[in-house]
Specification:
The chain is mainly alpha-helical. It has 6 helices and no strands. It has one domain. About 70% of the residues lie in helices and about 0% in strands. The protein is flat. It starts with a helix and ends with a helix. It holds the Pfam family PANTS-like.
């Protein structure tokens, strides 16, 4: 879904300039529009497969750990706090 109104507003551009140091040239939005139009010509099954594949290829913000890995990581980062008591 392409939300064009957020792209052209001065507020959006100022946020981009503040956060990234440059104005948004909207190239990502044009790519999303072209992609959307290409997907519209495919069957719903093809679209589902394409979107599932893309989702699997994305790097996610969360890294999944086993309970043992999580405990080890937690202790590495915050284990020193237990010694202060």
């Amino acid at each position: 879904m392409l939300s064009g109104s957020a792209i052209v507003t001065p507020v959006h551009q100022m946020q981009q300039y503040y956060r990234l140091g440059s104005l948004d040239n909207c190239s990502g939005k044009w790519g999303a529009l072209v992609d959307c139009l290409k997907l519209k010509t495919k069957s719903s099954q093809e679209v589902s497969e394409i979107l599932e594949t893309r989702e699997k290829e994305k790097t996610h913000i969360w890294s999944f750990r086993t309970p043992e890995e999580a405990a080890s990581h937690w202790n590495k980062l915050f284990g020193h706090l237990d010694n202060d008591k």
